[in-house]
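Hi support team,

I submitted a single chain yesterday and got back a structure, but I'm not sure I'm reading the token output correctly. Could someone confirm the output below corresponds to the sequence I sent? I've pasted both exactly as they appear in my results page.

Thanks,
R.
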Amino acid sequence: MSKRTLALLAAITATTIYGINHTIAKGVMPIYITPFGFIFVRVVGAALLFWGISFLGPKEKIEGKDWGRLVLAALLGMVINMLSFFKGLELSTPINSAVLVTISPIIVVVLSAFFLKERITLNKGLGIALGFIGAVSLVLFGAELRQDAPNIPFGNALFILNATAYGSYLIVAKKLVGKYHPFTLMKWLFTIAVVINFPITFNDFLMIEWTTMPLWAYGVVAFVVIGTTFCTYLFNIFAMTELKASTIGAFIYVQPLFGIVFALLTGKDALTIVKIGATVLVLVGVYLASKKVKAKP
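Hi R., thanks for writing in. Yes, this is the structure output for that exact sequence:
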């Protein structure tokens, strides 16, 4: 099997894990573990795992001038991003989260235009508008009467905050990715995230009743820490060594499909006209906003 084939399998596996995570992670919240308690377990577990494999990478020192950018990247990517996603997942539904987290490319385009002065073409402008309409439609009109989703509009708004934080993280971390080995970056990003998250999440972590938690709930926690956090980063890193960034980026269109299908098959969510319409608008918007314009000869 060629390295390119393995890279494609790695990218597909990472996307699949992200897609089914929307349903799996919600299954234990808030009955067995609160969203913030879950984040404490997630960042501590990921930090330990990345430190455990860091010896496989080169020994690197972070330059003094890069620590500020590293802290900001951790704040955006491993604090605001994760806290808003898991809290939103508690309040809303798996399908809503699977759709709304995919607007990150649109956020990147908007922020790049604002901070990096990148030009917004007609296609990108139309994509931003469609994605925005789809996202707002879910927030304003996606409410349902469900016991496991007590505040869908607010949960959906948190998914948009999650996507915004992650899009900002990609821009902030861009210079660091080209300068340091992924293992070096991940171990320090998650270590900083543990420190920042500690005062916010530790009390919720102490409330977890591990002795009364069923075995399947332990499996969910392990899946989120090892699968959704640790493995997906490793798979995406490997995929980046063999595939173009545009190829990897295309997998974001598959994530909602995996998320929606898994949620429907497990009976954890249902499709509505609003969800279908919003999904189409968001995916078309993401496609137009992230589509590269061919240079004229």
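A quick pointer for reading it: The chain is about 75% helix and 0% strand. Let us know if anything else looks off.

Best,
Support desk
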